[in-house]
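FORM 7B: Structural annotation worksheet

SECTION A. Query
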Amino acid sequence: MKAKAAQIYSSITLAIFMFFSSSALGAEEFAKGHGALQYFDAEGMSVTPMWVQVWVAAMVLTFAIGLFVFAWKQPIARWAAGGFIVSASTGEAVFATLGLPFLSGAIAIMHIVCWTPALVLLLTRRPFLDPEQGRWFRIWSGAITFVISFSFIFDIRDAAIYIAHFAGA
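SECTION B. Predicted structure
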């Protein structure tokens, strides 16, 4: 069953990337910022609203706690940390290979693809409600569930804008 789910997930991911690779990219210039069609780099971060900067810092901190505190003993924390590391370390290379710019919408797509397995595990196993788990892990698992879910509100919108733009819709 797990192997079948992994195969389906891999197929969906491949289909998304193949869809993007069929979209030709014009020589467009994109502004710096946090919008779906903007570059979100250090300069882009500096021109974003303060609440976005605080949110990004809180998000990174929550993932880092999972990596450095809980990943050694908790598989769900490994899924969350792994998804964060993969999305942060491979996203730009993946989109460059596809000939597409790594804008905020592309970052959103990487979040959705890489963080979904952790969110599914968090929502189906609900360690934040399990009294057999340690208190700090319950608190962290509730926090990371919120962080991923809240991020997806913006990521799904930004991914849709990015897809529509480069698909010519």
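SECTION C. Observations
Residues 9-27 have pLDDT under 50 and may be disordered. Residues 130 and 138 are 7 Å apart (CA to CA).

SECTION D. Sign-off
Analyst initials: ____
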